[in-house]
Write a structure and sequence with these properties.
single chain; mainly alpha; 6 helices; rod-shaped
Amino acid sequence: MNIHETARFLQRVTLLDNRQVDESVILHWQSLLDRYELGECIRALETHSRNSAEYLMPAHIIRIVKAEHERVEKHAPIPGADNHAAPKPNNFDAMCAVWSDPVAFAREVHAYDEQLVAAGFEPTSGMRQ
């Protein structure tokens, strides 16, 4: 947040607890919240207000925002992936039966690659359609 956004944020805080806000308070909060966006700080304020009777401190906002970031990252899609699981090989049993024979296993991998390509996935062995 920039200094103007921090001032707007603290106006909302003041509506909740009637705290006295002056330039030094704004500067202090801004120095602690400068890496966060106004919207996420407001959401954190709302979360804190719904769930706590504690006097709001910057640490509350930071903790809530960080928890939200961690939640989003945990469930974020893998960059560059379409996030659909590749199908199980139709020849899975055959692959398992020949895993110790490199030539036979390579044939089964090739068959699976054809299955993957037909389903719209990248092949495992670099085979291209």
